[in-house]
Design a protein that fits this description.
CATH class: Alpha Beta
Distance between the termini: 47 Å
Structural class: alpha+beta
Strand content: 35-45%
CATH topology: Phosphorylase Kinase, domain 1
Mean pLDDT: 80
Order of helices and strands: HEEEHEEE
Shape: globular
Helix content: 25-40%
Radius of gyration: 17 Å
Largest sheet: 6 strands, antiparallel
Number of strands: 6
Low-confidence stretches: 12-20
CATH architecture: 2-Layer Sandwich
Length: about 110
């Protein structure tokens, strides 16, 4: 019985989360820091003021300090250009290793 209830709750949550973001348009921005090695992708949803930042390093050693500094600079520039004064992390950073590639993903909420 407990397993059934857990399955029902998880399925309702997954369906609700997909409907909650359905219909929102996301603007994406791509920046190249080092040609063929380091990129930053920003995905911004205006209705929710959520900003997802993905810092990707290819074929180079990953330095978390450099990644955090570069993403902070990129987010600050985006916030200034769009009239936001504050931003805060929505959750801890997620770091994924894929062979020689590394991704740092940061979830932020912007405010005026």
């Amino acid at each position: 019985m407990k397993k059934l209830m857990l399955c029902v709750v998880l399925s309702v949550l997954s369906v609700f989360s997909s409907f909650a973001l359905e219909g929102y348009e996301t603007r994406t921005f791509h920046q190249v820091i080092k040609e063929n090695f380091i990129t930053i992708d920003l995905a911004y949803t205006e209705e929710t003021r959520n900003l997802i930042v993905v810092y990707t390093v290819k074929h180079m050693p990953f330095d978390e300090g450099d990644a955090v500094a570069a993403t902070r600079e990129s987010v600050q520039k985006f916030a200034d250009e769009n009239g936001f004064k504050h931003f805060k992390a929505f959750s801890p950073d997620v770091i994924k290793y894929h062979g020689k590639d590394t991704e740092l993903t940061r979830f932020l909420v912007l405010s005026k």
